[in-house]
Amino acid sequence: xxxxxxxxxxxxxxxxNRLWQFDAKGGGFVLNxxxxxxxxxxxxxxxxxxxxxxxxxxxxxVAWLPPEEVFLRVIELPKSNFEETRSMVELQLEKxxxxxxxxxxxxxxxxxGAPRNKEAGAETTSxxxxxxxxxxxxxxxxxxxxxxxxxxxxxxxxxETPLLDQLEMSPPAxxxxxxxxxxxxxDSALIAWxxxxxxRHLSLIVLSPDSDCAKxxxxxxxxxxxxxxxxxxxxxxxxxxxxxxxxxxxxxxTWLRAVLNEPIKVTHPLPPAELAARTAVRAATAAPGLALMxxxxxxxxxxxxxxxxxxxxxxATGIIYAIxxxxxxxxxxxxxxxxxxxxxxxAQISGDYTNALQLQARYEVLKQRQQxxxxxxxxxxxxxxxxxxxxNLQRFSFDNGEKLSLSGVCTPDQIGLISDPGKxxxxxxxxxxxxxxxFDPIVVEPLIxxxxxxxxxxxxxxxxxxxxxxxx
Length: 472
Prior knowledge:
By secondary structure, the protein is an alpha+beta fold. Helices cover 41% and strands 31% of the residues. It has 11 helices and 21 strands. It has helices at 45-48, 82-96, 139-151, 163-167, 213-231, 246-260, 272-285, 295-386, 416-419, 424-429, 465-471, and strands spanning 6-12, 16-25, 28-38, 59-64, 70-78, 104-110, 116-120, 123-138, 158-160, 176-181, 188-195, 198-206, 239-243, 264-267, 392-399, 403-410, 432-433, 436-437, 439-444, 448-452, 455-464. Strand 13 (239-243), helix 6 (246-260) and strand 14 (264-267) form a beta-alpha-beta unit. The longest helix has 92 residues, at 295-386. It starts with 5 loop residues before the first strand and ends with a helix.
């Protein structure tokens, strides 16, 4: 049961559909919900349908076959493992099957019981026997039943019969016959004959409502009693037990007392919910291939489940893609509208923006002119302050507000006034304005002078510092 997380048991009754939902807990199944729907109504999809979650939370769907379609036969076989027991039953299947083996589906169920030895006259052997219930159903009936379930939206993993769960009770403490009234209808009963702690025989009694029920019941019980004595499984006088609900108990108790003239012990059958819980445990622990459902239906349902998952996955992917496309186009439309609005605003302010650019350009030109004028005056002031009185300055050049070029002539004895440290060249080069260097101390062209006779021509060029910083 470890691989199942939930189990659904469906009973298709003549008047309604009953669905029990069980959750796997504590090594068993606990009833979660019980629902009842109309006979032709669809079952709740969320309860019975399988989806992606079923891959990691497997769900077991089990349907009860109508009891009137099920044929039960009990046989005794040597105790062995399950596969060998199934093979032994298959070899004898044609002997007790009511239909040709090609037209049936069948399974077996081994009932618990005390080990027994084979009996042959007065001699005994050590071979232990086991009681095996063979369940046989017409293939046509199974296919029709599965078609009805499909119409209600229920795709079964297994088909079971609750009669096995009634029979699988602990072996009774006394020999006797247990009559399960109403198993195949109001006027029918299944009789289980228990002797020696094991189930020896199963009999089905069907009464006609148009005839004398007591007389018919007596005739059928006499035939079963006689057959049991001949076959040897009726080894003593049975104790009679009637298992019936209050609706059927009164009639059947009256008929049995009139026929048998013996005490009848009346008990209530297992409640449907408890029967469903027993079926869930039995179905969950059974071998995967041991079921009354044809293999081709199991394969078909499995393939349909996989196809549904693929289809739902594709539909979900398509929906997500469509939503993504809608979001993309919606976002594109919104951004497009915002872009058009911005372009409209740009068109409205483009004239003002152009005028502002022109004004800014004019302002920059005027500002530059003003700076050049003040820079030229500052350079002239510095030169005038630092020029020695006896020195002859021939050329003062201020190029584009960036470079100051000075040149002149002097006598050989006057060259020191220009070139010596702290003198004219050095004083102009290191001049400051408002505490800042007026000229760039790095970009410096050296003092150049040439002597021709008693005349020395000198010149040098300085880079204004503020002009370079503005350029950067």
